[in-house]
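Margin note from the TA: students keep mixing up input and output lines. Inputs are the sequences; the output is the structure of the whole complex. Example:
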Amino acid sequence: MTRRPTIADIAQAAGVSKGAVSYALNGRPGVSAATRERILAIATEMGFVPNRAARSLSASTAQAVGLALRRPARVLGLEPFFMELISGMESKLSAESFGLTIQLVVTQEEELEVYRRWWAERRVDGVLLCDLHVDDVRVEAVPALGLPAVAVGGPIESERLASVWHDDHEPCAEVLEYLYALGHRRIARVAGLPHLLHTTYRDSGFGEAAARLGLESFQSIHADYTGEQAARITRRYLTSTPRPTAIVFDNDVMAIAGLGVAHELGIAVPEELSIVAWDDSPLCRLTHPTLTSLTRDVTAYGSRSAELLLARLKDPAAAGAGPAPSIRCPTASLSPRGSTGPAVA
Amino acid sequence: MTRRPTIADIAQAAGVSKGAVSYALNGRPGVSAATRERILAIATEMGFVPNRAARSLSASTAQAVGLALRRPARVLGLEPFFMELISGMESKLSAESFGLTIQLVVTQEEELEVYRRWWAERRVDGVLLCDLHVDDVRVEAVPALGLPAVAVGGPIESERLASVWHDDHEPCAEVLEYLYALGHRRIARVAGLPHLLHTTYRDSGFGEAAARLGLESFQSIHADYTGEQAARITRRYLTSTPRPTAIVFDNDVMAIAGLGVAHELGIAVPEELSIVAWDDSPLCRLTHPTLTSLTRDVTAYGSRSAELLLARLKDPAAAGAGPAPSIRCPTASLSPRGSTGPAVA
DNA sequence: CTGAAAGCGCTTACAG
DNA sequence: CTGAAAGCGCTTACAG
């Protein structure tokens, strides 16, 4: 037969009803073990694969999860973070034969529109929300749509939106204490986008740790994660007097740009300047010297998020009852490498 | 109404049949202009969005395109290439309200299995094939499935598989001629994976250009696009005697790793060593010196591929007739930057 | 131009 | 344990 086999074909071949085939295929009660065996054998032999649209229509499930990314394409491409995250999500999803539908968006309104459309079309069963903002409207708007979702980031204050996050405070303290122990007293930071939630956590984390250590000159300047802005800010830091002896960058791309500026200005790393990167991608090991960085398992972060969403899709009753779970992932830890060393006065 | 509106609801409100609603919504003949207006107004007012599964089931179209990526997650994350490509594809697809379904796979067999399943499930209408190999089984196997596809890469020899590609020969010549003009005579290359089709085109492109220029010592060593392998090979090149005065890398990540090795060995770039990268991502402008590289518009490459696939999906008759189109994109061109300079003997 | 009906390929109560 | 039937929400010939 050249046509795709349907359950009707299997039913006919097995001499049973379509309903029986459906029960057998889905491992539900309603058919005897012997009949089930026979039906499954025939289905396999015919190379049967259920039509997703038909199944979706009657079961009203899309067997797919959506991911809308609102970042400029060049930033997405540049940061290994996103592909690692996607890879982690995808591994869990495909294991449960869920699809992952991706769309890039520009504005927040466009992003919400995508969620509305996906949900109205029943193209996805749920979504994963990235890049949480301060006062993120999605935290209220997405649950309000009735669209199951998991926020990848936090912690957030919400009874309705589940989230997977890790602590951003502790690593800030760890970095500053490490640099302090190396003798650094003039430390600066090139921070990420100020409206991103985790940036604010780091702002306060660094601020508190700096105050505790008496690092009065500690300062942060916000950037957009691109190399250009990071280079400009680093240049400003390094040409000020007295210049910092250590700079912390909120991502790896900016740290590499900062290292480039140090080379450009003839400032030796780590002899005259220590550099610490956040997000320990393989990029940090490409450079010379290699970059000291805060390591976290981004792939695990993605897979944990997908896992939580799948669990909530599987048990909508539990998902509806009680406050939404908030899962904390292991905190990032410092991996000292070649770019940090003792401070010189 | 709390339930999603269906065409039946609209039909009832408008006092027409469901068929009429369908015709009006899809802009097909069969309803008068006045009726159409009225139906559309009601649909808008009700916030109607067609159920994708129902539409897919009756129209037997998924309104989605699949992309299976067979690369280690860390390579995918590291190379801006893929996200830029995806971004280009996605922009065309979402403009036509097609979804993009992504899956990461490990083996070729797994990849083919994904295509078979997607197609059998009718989860996608077509696929985009990346990373063409030498004697790639997909070139025959995917058209044999009846699954519409466009190869992103080539040129390939196939009457059945459409492709979008760009020439890899000319840039090789351009690079070597440029370096030759700068006085370089000992040139080495850190190549990409040897079984990838474009690597073989570059192998021959560089080989021919080197022969033409009389660069007898020109040599290529194949690597896997990671920084580790590139660093190892670069170290070998730079510690040999006489060492090359210029090294060409098949991607940006390897070029950055190579630059790191030069720093590590105290070899000044570009004074003592020139470096050229392939794939001009923003990464090439992060470093100091900035990397001379071969620029191509990866986003356009992706969007052109998606466009071709959409065109073939829209007109299956034309897609079935005649040899599959083979679209050539603009050739990469050299962007000289700080990492190349005159050769020193 | 319009309506009533069948059909896409599944799932799922509901009777036997 | 099994079968016959209705239904999911659309599209599309086929009559009027």
